[in-house]
């Protein structure tokens, strides 16, 4: 086969591959308002996003920065509003606003194929906006439901990636039980049927200052690899 024939054959094969590839809708959720120079989880978010975009040029990307969103605490007004709406009852103006806000984030989450969470471990847990956001999503009847055999989730078809940074080394003996960032998020989303999220963790960069840069660099390399495969 001549050179030009090979060239055009390869070009056609690449074009066919791109055309046949199924486009995914991906939600990227950032949960750190500190800049990348100061926050490892922000570096992880930016690295994963950049690498994923390069590897999946046709996918639809939605970015959600929880620190920039309107996320009032999930309490009585929202809970009552959602309940009344589901029962066909009349809502107050405040209840309707709160219920609509819950629906906004819930519908967005349910509409995507893949979700990427990037968050730090702060003060032994996750930042407050993430707790509020997850509370909005955890709606019985839409995200999960109760049965006599226990709850069943409705979001198990979604591919989920958890990116987490923690300054201490929770891989040490006796530390795992105190980790309430990755474990917390995993427990919550398992209620929704998401039981096998992928995870990339960078840890110990504050505990081992002499190896901090090496730990971060190795971790970001793992982030890139995960992004290509996701």
Automatic annotation (TrEMBL):
InterPro entries: Flavodoxin_fold, Flavoprotein-like_sf, FMN-dep_NADH:Q_OxRdtase_AzoR1, NADH:quinone_OxRdtase_FMN_depd. Residues 24-225 form the Flavodoxin-like fold domain. Transmembrane segments: none annotated. It comes from the Bacteria. Keywords: Flavoprotein, FMN, NAD, Oxidoreductase. Its cofactor is FMN. Pfam families: Flavodoxin_2. Its EC number is 1.6.5.-, 1.7.1.17. Gene3D superfamilies: 3.40.50.360. Binds 1 FMN per subunit. The keyword Thylakoid does not apply. It catalyses: N,N-dimethyl-1,4-phenylenediamine + anthranilate + 2 NAD(+) = 2-(4-dimethylaminophenyl)diazenylbenzoate + 2 NADH + 2 H(+); 2 a quinone + NADH + H(+) = 2 a 1,4-benzosemiquinone + NAD(+). GO terms for molecular function: electron transfer activity; FMN binding; oxidoreductase activity, acting on NAD(P)H as acceptor; oxidoreductase activity, acting on NAD(P)H, quinone or similar compound as acceptor. The keyword RNA-binding does not apply. Quinone reductase that provides resistance to thiol-specific stress caused by electrophilic quinones. Also exhibits azoreductase activity. Catalyzes the reductive cleavage of the azo bond in aromatic azo compounds to the corresponding amines. Homodimer. Belongs to the azoreductase type 1 family. This is FMN dependent NADH:quinone oxidoreductase. It comes from Peribacillus loiseleuriae.
């Amino acid at each position: 086969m001549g050179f030009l024939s090979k060239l055009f054959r390869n070009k056609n094969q690449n074009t066919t591959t791109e055309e046949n590839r199924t486009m995914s809708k991906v939600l990227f959720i950032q949960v750190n308002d500190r800049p990348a120079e100061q926050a490892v989880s922000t570096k992880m978010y930016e690295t994963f996003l950049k690498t994923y975009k390069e590897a999946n040029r046709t996918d639809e990307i939605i970015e959600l920065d929880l620190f920039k969103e309107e996320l009032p605490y999930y309490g009585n007004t929202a809970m009552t509003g959602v309940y009344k709406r589901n029962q066909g009852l009349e809502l107050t103006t405040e209840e309707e606003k709160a219920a609509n806000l819950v629906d906004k984030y819930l519908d967005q989450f349910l509409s995507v194929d893949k979700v990427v969470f990037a968050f730090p471990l702060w003060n032994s847990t996750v930042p407050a906006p993430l707790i509020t956001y997850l509370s909005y999503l955890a709606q019985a009847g839409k995200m999960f439901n109760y049965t006599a055999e226990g709850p069943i989730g409705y979001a198990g078809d979604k591919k989920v990636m958890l990116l987490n940074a923690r300054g201490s080394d929770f891989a040490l003996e006796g530390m795992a039980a105190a980790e309430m960032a990755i474990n917390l998020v995993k427990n919550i989303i398992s209620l929704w049927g998401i039981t096998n999220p992928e995870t990339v963790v960078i840890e110990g960069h504050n505990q081992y200052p002499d190896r901090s840069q090496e730990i971060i660099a190795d971790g970001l390399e793992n982030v890139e690899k995960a992004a290509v495969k996701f």
